Amino acid sequence: MAGFRGLLVALFVSLLVYTSVVINSHGWNLMSVFFGDMAKMEWSGQFNLDFMFMLSLSALWVAWRHRFSVEGLVLALLAFFGGASFLAVYLFVISLRANGDMRQVLLGKSRGEGLATLPI
């Protein structure tokens, strides 16, 4: 679990530094670039579309994990717009709260209980 948490910290810090450099060089105009690349129907747009679908799946998982509660829907919005920056912090926090129990991390507390005897 320490290795996983270390990876999450490394991902978050790397992305934070990279994003800071990009914002400093190009400003905050992410959406126009992101959707503009998709409109061009080129490989960068294909990657952005694929990435947006991954963000959608991440957001759906977060909402499902929280049983589509208000908290879960707010976190899902953060997952969609925050991407890996949000997900790295989110996974780090829930791994601490779950004491490293990956069933609980992936399924949530109530869904993860009682599964210790099932082979996964």
Describe, in plain words, how this protein is organized in 3D:
This protein is mostly helical. The chain has one domain. It contains six helices and no strands. Helix 1 crosses helix 4. The protein is globular, with a radius of gyration of 17 Å.
Topology:
Blueprint: H1 2-26, H2 30-39, H3 43-65, H4 70-97, H5 102-107, H6 109-112
Helix pairs in contact: 1-4, 2-3, 3-4
Gist?
This protein is mainly α and about 120 residues long. It has helices at about 1-25, 30-40, 45-65, 70-95, 100-105, 110. The protein is built from six helices and no strands.
Q: What average pLDDT do the residues reach?
A: 91
Helix content: over 70%
What would you report as the Rg, rounded to the nearest angstrom?
Answer: 17 Å
Given the C-alpha coordinates, what overall shape results? globular
Compressed to H and E, one letter per element, the order equals HHHHHH
Largest sheet: none
Number of strands: 0
The poorly predicted ranges are: none
Tally of helical runs: 6
Strand content: under 5%
Estimated structural class: mainly alpha
Termini separation: 17 Å
Number of domains: 1
